[in-house]
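SEQUENCE-TO-STRUCTURE ENTRY
===========================

Backbone structure tokens: a row of integers, each naming the local backbone shape at its residue.

Task: work out the structure tokens from the sequence, keeping to the layout shown below.
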Amino acid sequence: GTNSGCGKTTIFCSVLQALKNRRLNVSAFKCGPDYIDPMFHAAIMQALSSNLDPYFCEDWLPYVMAENAGEINLAEGAMGYYDGMAFTSKYSAYDVACRLNVPAVLVIDAKGSANSVLAVMQGFLNFKEKSGICGFILNRVTERTYRGICANWKDERAKLYGYFPSLPEKYILKSRHLGLVTAGEIVCIREMMQYLAEQAEKTIDLEGLLALSQSAEPLQFKVPQISRLDPIRIAVARDEAFCFYYKENLMLLQKMGAEIVDFSPLHDCELPKADCIYLGGGYPELYTDALSGNQAMKEGLRKAAQDKIPIFAECGGFMYLNRILDGK
């Protein structure tokens, strides 16, 4: 996308659902550090999505994609296409496209524009000598505006692959701090995704995108040698309040010999027996009453700490361990 909020997750999910409806073997990926968008991908695919994080993976990025690849692979960008670390393009969606040598399609929020969209398209194409951009999808435009822009676009390096009109309020993905609301919070998620898929079938050139996907070069990658350590049992907090995890981290622990056991600070009355405890991120502030009221779980964690069982807590998981949260 051109920026955060341009509609790339909505359009990405619409294309993903439409291709799944065609019973194609599709895998989804998210560029960069993001826990929430893969939950939407998972809601569509009924399987975990994967992260393509060049900061953590560096030269192993092609392997991460290959390990989780399907016949067709869609990767959603993060922020703006060229937005990386410290006002550079390093670790950006552009960087990921370059490392994987895959074609990119840019989503542009074109509401309230006409020919000015052409300048945006030219600017993104020419910002880097080899931008990797092979096409565009326009968001929040009418068919008439889209046809006019298509008629005036003359650059053969990239083509237009369709558009999305402004959506009814009930089908717009809502946001909060840290990004979108989670997929589990949307009651009508399946209905919403089917609506978006139907819209994609009407106004996005899915055949063109499938043809473009076939232009990608075969991935070149090496397989890492992973050493196995002594067996260890790790209790991982996973429920509505704690859901921010990279599945790749947990998979790596398993490859190294760890046994992963899930538990719920919201719903369970006791901790599972484990050698260490992992409290990941999420939105515990939305569930303060239930978390505070689960005395048995709190006592279990307190006893685990007293027994010197290591507790790794990050983000919302660390907030949960404090006595007071936001004055409550």
Notes: The first strand starts at residue 26 and ends at 31. The chain has 13 helices and 14 strands.
